[in-house]
Specification:
By secondary structure, the chain is mainly beta. The chain has 2 helices and 19 strands.
């Protein structure tokens, strides 16, 4: 298996359905009280690309993409139309959007993350597939020139040429994709007309660690 650094057709992805999924065990005790256990540290996103199919041409694109990925075998990039940028409002990334660490004078690498929620119990999501060209960085409130850091588009690691000073807050802005794979090895295609196709179910699932 492998990961293909290629994006699912964007025009179809923007018409899809889906979002984050978590896995929680709930045990009801004899007293009526519940015990809950969160089995996943991170959410796993699921999508159905079938809702984005509007024409026979769309179906042909998906068919070719599916065959090239060998069904579930290879992962690929997916653009989540709701959640694809470091800005909570979906706007263009800015260098102060997300805090990704605090300098200690020695650490040179920081993982891109996106924060969800306020101060009560925020969730920090690792971002592993950023669009490297969109990443902007600030240290201590000062926007950094491109020569001061590099970004690994395969892992989301930011590497500085010189370690940020102790106590300096490191922030980042970025656009990103979601690493996914098909969650089926079979496409069921119903031709509904001369220039239309209906595919009721094209499930995709986020792959962790790719």
């Amino acid at each position: 298996m492998g990961f293909h650094q290629v994006r699912f057709p964007l025009d179809i992805a923007l018409g899809a359905q889906g979002g984050p999924q978590r896995l929680t065990d709930i045990v009801q005790l004899a007293s009526g009280r519940e015990e809950r256990n969160q089995r996943w540290a991170h959410a796993r996103r699921r999508y159905n690309a079938g809702y984005g199919i509007k024409s026979r041409a769309d179906m042909q694109k998906v068919l070719e993409f599916f065959e090239e990925r060998r069904g579930r075998f290879h992962g690929f990039l997916w653009r989540d139309g709701l959640d694809w940028t470091s800005r909570g409002d979906g706007g263009a990334p800015m260098a102060t959007d997300q805090q990704i660490g605090t300098g200690d004078g020695a650490q040179k690498q920081f993982q891109l993350t996106k924060r969800y929620g306020a101060g009560f119990d925020p969730y920090l999501r690792p971002i592993t597939k950023p669009l490297a060209a969109t990443v902007t960085i600030s240290v201590g409130g000062m926007v950094q020139p491109g020569a001061a850091f590099t970004v690994d588009g395969l892992t989301g690691l930011v590497s500085f040429a010189v370690a940020p000073a102790e106590g300096a807050v490191v922030r980042a802005g970025f656009a990103f994709d979601v690493p996914v794979r098909f969650d089926t090895d079979r496409l069921e295609i119903e031709l509904a007309g001369f220039d239309a196709a209906v595919v009721p179910n094209i499930p995709l699932i986020e792959v962790i660690g790719e």
